[in-house]
Structure formats: C-alpha cells, structure tokens
Specification:
Length: about 250
C-alpha cells in the first residue's frame, strides 16, 4: 500500500511543492489515463497468482515454462498497447481534458514504462508469493518504495513534471532488479533470446510509429499495428500452441 500510494499521490505533491499547482494538474491528468492501463495489471494478478501457486506446490519443475510463457505474453500483447498509447496520447488528452493539458502527453508516454515494469513486477511478485517468499517480497517492496520516493523528488527537481514520471519508472526499475534477483533463487528466468522475436516485432512497430509521426495519429496507429502483426506472424513471435498453453492454464 505504501508503494501504491507513493506512485499515486507522491508525484503531484512533490510537483506542487517544487513547481506549481498547474504542473501538478498536468501530471495528474496524464496519470488518470495510466490508471486505465493498470487495470491490465489487476486482471493479470487475478489470473496468474492461482496458477503460480498451484504449480509451485504440485509441479514446481514445470513452473519455469509457465513463467516464461506469461512474460512472453506481456511483451507480445502489452508492449504494442503501450506503444499505441504513446501514439494517441496527445489527441486523447486534448479530447478528455481540453487545451492547456497538452503537457500531459509526454507524462503519459513516460509512464507507459511504469506500466510495463509494474506488470513484470507483478508476475515476479506472484512467483515469490507462490513459493512462500513473502518476507523477501516485503523487504524488497518496502525498500523499493523508499527508493522510489527519492527518485521522484530528484527527477522532479531536475526535469519537471515529466521528470516525476521518469522518477516513478526509475524506482520501479530498481524494484524489478531486486525482485528478479530474488526470483532466480526459486525459479530460473528466461534469457533475452527467449523474447527476441516478440521484441523485434515491437521494435518494428515503434520505429514505424516514429516514421509516421508526421501523419494523423490514427494513421500512425493503424499502420504501425499492421506492421507489428505482419512481422510477429512472419517470424512466429508467439506460436499458436503457446497461446493455447496459456489459455488452458490461466483461464
């Protein structure tokens, strides 16, 4: 709860003190869109934790395969959503909050990094809980929350409202590092090569969105999404049997 409150309430307070109330409002507008994306994290937790606990207790030797499949699914299905969010952040902010809040679009783009990191952290957290390492988890998250407070204050002081978002991402990254070190003691983590094909498809989508940045956001979103799907299918970024594997174990 302390970590959640640090992410939600600390940045606007720090921005209000170090910058202005207007900057705090801009940050809060961007964070409200991020809250919608965080619903994915809640759903993922509800699906993965029961399966993780079941495998940790009855089939621990099969747990690494489940963990690898879930992490791959995050790259394949969530990263494109986050890229798409960055593409349409400006028009959506303008539509929802109106003129004067355009500065929230960069905040949204930066905080998509937080969404990705917190999704991965949730998977690692479920792993630790499933294997009974709740004390380790508590220490990491408690210390990580304090580090996040420091990074938010420091980044806000140097880089403004967008820097507050970067501070949140940096703090979450530190937590990810320590959670990863704790998880490898109970289950091996997949190497980067395991994510190489999905990562290539995501990189193509990101590059194409930059190339189409001068066009309409809808054109950029549609074009980059089509390229992502084409590349993902052509290089078999996530085989159909892996999707079936996840559906059978999580749903």
């Amino acid at each position: 709860m302390f970590l959640a409150q640090s992410v939600t309430n600390l940045p606007p307070i720090v921005i209000g003190i170090l910058l202005s109330n207007a900057d705090a409002g801009v940050y809060s507008a961007g964070m409200k869109l991020i809250f919608l994306l965080l619903l994915i994290d809640r759903i993922l937790n509800a699906l993965f934790l029961p399966a993780a606990t079941r495998y940790a207790v009855s089939r621990p030797a099969e747990f690494p395969a489940l963990l690898s499949a879930v992490l791959t699914a995050v790259v394949v299905f969530i990263v494109p959503v986050l890229i798409g969010t960055c593409i349409v952040a400006g028009p959506v902010i303008l539509l929802v909050f109106g003129p004067g809040y355009e500065g929230a679009a960069p905040v949204v783009c930066v905080l998509t990094g937080y969404v990705l990191l917190t999704l991965i952290n949730s998977i690692l957290t479920c792993t630790l809980v499933a294997f009974g390492r709740t004390r380790t988890y508590s220490i990491i998250v408690g210390g990580g929350a304090l580090i996040l407070c420091v990074t938010v204050i420091a980044f806000t002081a140097f880089f403004g409202a967008t820097g507050a978002g970067a501070g949140v991402v940096a703090g979450e990254g530190v937590i990810l590092y320590f959670l990863g070190r704790a998880v490898i003691r109970v289950a091996p983590l997949p190497t980067f090569s395991f994510f190489l094909k999905p990562a290539i498809a995501c990189a193509v989508m990101g590059a194409s969105s930059l190339a189409l940045a001068g066009t309409s956001p809808l054109i950029s979103l549609a074009g980059s999404s089509v390229l992502f799907v084409i590349v993902l299918i052509s290089i078999r970024g996530i085989p159909a049997e892996e999707i079936r594997y996840l559906r059978e174990r999580l749903v």
